[in-house]
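Lab notebook, page 48
Experiment: co-folding of the full assembly
Goal: obtain a model of how the components sit together before planning crosslinking
Operator: M.T.
Materials (sequences as entered):
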Amino acid sequence: MPSTVVHVGFALLLAAALLGAAYDRRALLAVAGVVVFADLDVFTSLVVEGSHRAMFHTLLVPLFVGTYLYADTRWREESLVRARVGDHGVQVAWVAIAAFCLSAVGLDMFTAAGVNPFYPLFDQFYAFNGQVTWSSETGLSQTFVELTQEPAGASGGGGSGGTTVDVGQKGSSREYRVGSGVDPTRGKEPANVERVFPVVYNGWQTFLTLAGVVVTAVKLRGLPAWTEAHTTRTEGEVPSTETPETGDVEATDD
Amino acid sequence: MPPTLVHAAFGVVLGAALLKSAYGRRALAVVGFAAALPDLDALLSVLVPGLHGAAFHTVLWPLALGGLLYLDARRDSPWLVARFGPHALRVAAVALLSWALAGTGPDLFNLAAANPIWPLDSVFYSVTGKLEYTTTQGVVQTFYNYSPDGMYTHFVGQRARSFCNPNAWNPTCVASPSGNVERISPLFQGGWQLLVVLAGVAVVAGRERVARADDTRSRGGER
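Observation: model returned without errors.
Model output:
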């Protein structure tokens, strides 16, 4: 279960990759803020039992926001969002939505503890975790989706001949909950309960976080000047008007 | 080690982040390939078993090539630019960074280990652990362990001297594996790796649109 730190690290990486000319400190803050927001449902879990990894980890939020943003920027004559935050603002919004889906919800959904991605419409936690391995003897095998053939007559709602499909269902928020440092156990905790606040577990989470930090540092400082594009005078072509690399200028709110 | 596809996905994300005006499909492919390149030393492990995770995973390669790149860039008309076009220096620099960061990095932070300064030293590293804060124990970390009497005074994940990474090419870590041994090649070792690859695909698709949008916008601004 990756911590908020890891989520932000991965989100920084995605932001660096997708923001293009809209990349600047303010945009990063916005994207990171959106990702941090998802984890704030540790507090709603104090009120609505079992709503951590559900209340704000639902994909319905980016679905609605994304639909509105698409409709506003594509179908409306004069986009209200664009009029307010500009082209770069719209770009930042799209990246924030992507970071929310991939980092805030995705990282939790693709690790052991899982999320409740369609809460509250459809209350079911999923942890889409597993392995795909190729072996020279058994060929390709995977454990992401487990199909179990149930004996005839056994109870089971699987429509196709008593087959159960396990894609990592964990149960509804009544049966399953994800603990956190804020709300470790169901109901009221004893005063001396141990509260655990993870920062990074495992090497890969460390790598993801460090990679986000390193890429952000490199991008904000800029790669050394000697890697800039050369105007090729040797090739005898007409000098292109695009060579003064407008994209390389540090993004400003113009 | 994380599968090669995961390295390539990291590389693609890195490329999309750092290529800037040098961005293009070919440039992105070069940077992604640079991240996958270190895993080719698995082939060498057929000859010398301990080479996987070392021969191409050492950061001395990207460092040395980076030095050459710098020397080339300082010339009046760099060879790389004459050969591959005006953006070649940026693409090469990002590719070397991708080699070290996306190629070696994930292996270093993984139980399957890498040797980042081979052949200067023969020690493989697996930098893993946890860092957390608990209300009963305070800050807990297991990345670094200090034990003056232990095998390593400063332990950050050093592996045994004779460490060898088994892989599909050399599954048994002996010089000449017998013919009918099971060869295993992981494609995804956990949900997060699948997510990273999905993110890589999303970044490739998204970055293309961003590049086009930025392009039309900057042109519109000039005119």
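Interpretation: Chain A has six helices and seven strands.
Next step: discuss with group before ordering constructs.
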